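In this section we walk through a basic example: taking a raw amino acid sequence and producing a predicted 3D structure, encoded as discrete structure tokens. The instruction is simple. Fold the sequence below.
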Amino acid sequence: MITVRAPATSANLGSGFDVFGAALASPADVVRVEKAERTTIDVTGVGSQFIPEDPDGNTVGAVAEELDAPAHIQIDKGVRPASGLGSSAASAAAAAVALNELYDRGYTREELVPVAAEGEAVVSGVAHADNVAPAIMGGFTVTTGTGTNSVDAEVPLVACLPDVAVSTRDARRVVPDEATMDQLVETVGNAATLTIGMCRSDPELVGVGMEDSVVTPARAELITGYHDVRDAALEAGATGVTVSGAGPAILAACKADDRRTIAAAMVDAFANEGVESRAYQTRIGEGATIL
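The resulting token sequence is shown next.
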């Protein structure tokens, strides 16, 4: 039996739509795999009642098929589904790393990224890697058609998750089909700034680089209270705020000493809108870990 912990992740980070991703120190999924003649899946933990155990409808089933590695797979969910924190990616990443080890397939971490992305296609309809890349490799990741690059970063974060759901499919439907040249120039500049900030572990630059005028405004409208929560986080000391992935989680970059104040401000702002929420005081963390 192999047991792997894979972290929650935040994709896009504002200016890096479908390209940027970051592993979070918490929360995380834990996946256990054991060789079997056919793949079976058991799911426990947060939101497990909403996750199919049929291998054809579960991200880890697709990963097992891609690796030709049938197994009994037990998923203990720590990352809530439909959260914008890479719930399906955490399970897929953990399964990919665990099954690669169990069957001695010999894939590198980077080579496992497209394998886990096939699992993501089960949920979103698209084999995108912006969540599975950091879930496997850790740190801050940049994924393009030619592969994934990653860098370790020490950037404090607060991820505030409201008690509402936004599906990845719905969030992709609202993405604009076009952008102006001014928006393109602004987005490239912000993405470059964020990347430098990650390389320097500079939360100020990361926060500035999160600004996005194309995708984020459209997705923000799907999240009750987004603008008030964002304003509250900035007033409490956040250096930047954006939608985490498809939402509804909201991600704030900040200095370590400000996390508690920012977390409380975001939870209070959601409460003022009649929405319960939970804030994770976290940071950029490691990728999937064999336990």
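Looking at the output, two observations stand out. The mean pLDDT is 94. The longest strand covers residues 20-35. In the next section we compare this with other chains.
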